[in-house]
Batch of 2 targets.
Target 1
Amino acid sequence: NSGCLKMKKENNTNYSLSKLLDLKLWKEIQDNFASFAEIDIRLVDAEGKFLTAASIEHSFCQIMRSASPRFEYSCLPTFLGGEGKIDKNLSYVCKWGLTHCAVPLQINGAPALGYIILGPMIINRPSREYCRELSQRFNINEEELWSALLKIKTISLKNTFSLVELLKKMLGYTLTLAYDNIKHHKESEEILILEALLEVVFEVSRADIGSIMFADKNEKYLTIKVARGLSEDVVKKTKVRIGEGISGLALKEGESFVIDDKTSDNRILPYLNRPHLNSSMVVPFSLQDELKGVMNLGTLKSSEKKFTLENLKLVNRLINLTALALKS
């Protein structure tokens, strides 16, 4: 294996994030994910020492940095030397009133080796009065501060926890492989990441049903690895020859399809016998620069949602982010 892992067999007690991870490659994954989510991400060790720099330097943070000593550490939870009081979901509010999350990184249930820190983000936007009080306390221009606050991502708790879970499984996957490079374990960890990916994709696309299919060892057929909204029987029995059907064609051609009742592509028209669907997307899935499978997403007739090219771009970005984590 290569990529994000430095394969060093040691005693469990000697493991650390800096020994297990290629921090340069993780920073690439971190920055891409932060760009997609529009939320800053940093990595700290178990003592609260920053291992990676911020991915997004919000103008609000730049302003407060100049007004407050030990700025970075004020945005950590108390158990890492900061000032944020953490709740049961590992989210906390920093001294500036903004929400952050601390995602523990563990191997086989052992104490955390470190934490992914996400934030700042806004669950409930601060009032103008709060901004005024902050500006007066630190002698900062109120309009400048308010403008900076408005640029910070507003996100629901549900979406926050979905993103947290995907990030946690991505990095947990690489840590576990570095500690225990066993093939069958690797496959089970891949499934966990794919399930987390599908969950986040459902959140951002509002899909009703979906699956991720990978090619078999002989690269002749696609079978379902993970799915949502499909029966267990369908998941077990579905087998699509590569080059045939919409999924098979998408993989062979390396081309995405956004499909609804206005679709006129003659290559896929013969396969559009799906009266229960309102809209669908089929997106190729690459690993290590090779096409390995496809993601299928659909909305039901009962839904008003129709996929757009913007949805396709978001899904492609999430797939690419996940592929980086599965690169090893």
Target 2
Amino acid sequence: MSKNLYIVPFDFTPVGKKAVEYGLMLGSKVKTEIQLLHLCDSEPKGLVKKKELEEYAKTLNPPIGTEITTLVRTGNIFSDIGRIAKEEHAQLIIMGTHGIRGLQALTGSNAMKVMTSAECPFIIVQKETELKDIKEIVVPIDLTKESLQITNIAGDIANIFGATIHVLAEKQSDSILNTRILNRISIVSNQYKERDVNAKISFLKKSGSYDKKIMRYAQDNSVDLIAFAYHTESLLPQFDSFAPNLINNKEKLPVVVINSKLASALYF
């Protein structure tokens, strides 16, 4: 497998260090370059931080096949991460969140701007996120075709870790909508069967908050990772809170999320 590039926006905080640790855990499974990215608001600060970042990188113990590099740029985390990731041809951005109080509480926030500005997927971790192999992945889909854009990425992760994917959807009382969601499920199921990915299909009751039902399912099934596509034109009226609620989940599970408008094919 050719070497990938994972960018970790790094701010020297504990949650930033957790993002690095999670990247190293992924690096134990795939050959990758992990690039620690620090953004400063001036070149003089950048020179100081460049030295600090290089010293921090020397303390890391990457697995065989994983290379640690550093990059310090003048810029803004909320507008430049996606641009830099594109320039560097990154397959993945691994970023820490301080929770609902961090990153501007996420709803309509600057943090969402970071994610929606990038073409590659993000893995979002919290300070308390556990470092462990990924064995169970939840992939919630809805009535939109955009929600399916996460399935390839989730399938790649499942193949790397030998994980099972739990495809979740809500039951629909309307016959037309029910046919549509069944068609979506059929597409995903056939895709995973062709790729030899172990997948389980589960339908959740329509009533209640979708994100809360997803998290209850995750708890009941010892899920290790949640993967979904962010798309603001979802038919789900609560989607503006759906994404932040999953990203800041109380179980501290890591989350893979992509901006469906900018997403392309495979990243792993």
